[in-house]
């Protein structure tokens, strides 16, 4: 696939297809598939990345778009869903254990933030390879 150029309103890197990986999470945002995370098939470290990979369905093109904010921990097997202009990512496997962290990506300004529960003891158990769906702008 040919390299793509950035949009003037969103910083992007030149990119072709994403590297093969396992356990990335993805969600549809209008006419784009937004993908984050996963592990590459290599023994190297899996550091947090400061970008999401986006596939535009209408243009059949991949782009890497830089993100800012509190980056999710590196890992695989997170659940991902988009509600309006917010993408939510929960759980996953990293650092040899499952996670119960919840992150939010504002898909317009591409800024991550971790959503911390008021009482962490009452939060869900750590999970990986789980799922979320969006039904009428409510997360299930």
Rg result: 15 Å
Structural class by SSE content = mainly beta
Q: What does the overall shape look like?
A: globular
Instruction: Please give the largest β-sheet.
Output: 5 strands, antiparallel
**Percent strand:** 35-45%
Order of helices and strands: EEEEEEEEEEEEEE
Fraction of residues in helices?
under 10%
Mean pLDDT: 80
Q: Count the strands?
A: 14
The parts where pLDDT drops under 50 for at least 5 residues are 1-14
Number of helices: 0
Distance between the termini: 35 Å
Strand order of the largest sheet: 1-5-4-3-2
What would you say about this model in short?
With 140 residues, this protein is an all-beta fold. The protein is built from no helices and 14 strands.
Structural account:
- The protein has strands at residues 12-13, 25-29, 32-36, 51-56, 61-66, 68-69, 79-83, 86-90, 93-94, 97-98, 102-106, 111-115, 134-135, 138-139.
- With 140 residues, it is mostly beta strands.
- A five-stranded antiparallel sheet has the order 1-5-4-3-2, with no helix packed on it.
- It is globular, with a radius of gyration of 15 Å.
- The model is unreliable at 1-14 (pLDDT under 50).
List keywords for this structure.
140 residues; mainly beta; five-stranded antiparallel sheet; 39% strand; globular; disordered N terminus
Question: How is this fold's topology laid out?
Answer:
Elements: E1 12-13, E2 25-29, E3 32-36, E4 51-56, E5 61-66, E6 68-69, E7 79-83, E8 86-90, E9 93-94, E10 97-98, E11 102-106, E12 111-115, E13 134-135, E14 138-139
Parallel strand pairs: 6-12
Antiparallel strand pairs: 1-5, 2-3, 3-4, 4-5, 7-8, 8-11, 9-10, 11-12, 13-14
